[in-house]
Amino acid sequence: MKGNFPEKYAILLLGPPGVGKFEYCLDLTWHYLTSGESVIYITTERGPDEVKERARAIGLDLEAYEGRSLIFVDGYSWSVGKKYAAGYSIENPSNLNEINIKIKKAVDQLSPRRRLIFDSLSPLFLHNSADAVTKFFQVLTSRTKTEYGSILCTLQEGVHDPRIVNTLVYLVDGLIEMEYEEGKKLMRKLRIHHLRGVQVDQSWIKFDITDKGIRIRNKP
After folding, report:
1. What's the predicted TM-score (pTM) here?
2. How far, in Å, CA of 67 to CA of 41, rounded?
3. Would you identify the CATH topology of the domain 10-179?
4. pLDDT tens track for 167-213
């Protein structure tokens, strides 16, 4: 689960709000960076400073890589009247072409082994039609696989029309699902639903969010 995904590949990470998708993205980003790969982190639900702060809280120093092998494309700070100077800021989330242009600029700064983390697609639907976001997603994933490297995108489950979700799943090579069960203690689970061309264990795996990030529970 630590990002041993094929190159030239697009993956969708689907789960309800608060289940652990963001923490998974942090773990994956750290895995790539410490493996000598480059990361473009596109964020729409929190600013880069919060991403780095949350990473520091679990012992991951993203700032040590920023500007060299990590670049943020910030699609959040505009909403609080700010602009992120260290990376690329999105000034108009309804201009999907602007996002593509900023991603391309970030890609051009980094080494060939590039991974894109897009967390998350859901806010784009607040400013654009479903058809426009779907077309944007299709172009982005296709361009990533042919020119950039690989991409993982997150999507909030339960807030979109199931037909839209099914379309996005159709456009990617792999799907990772997260869910939780209510009880005395919240039980979080994840599974690889499918990876095109790869044999995978599709069983659900329990995990916890700790002060060291995501930790997979030992199987009984």
Report:
1. 0.95
2. 12
3. Rossmann fold (3.40.50)
4. 999 999 999 999 998 877 889 999 999 999 999 999 999 999 988 88
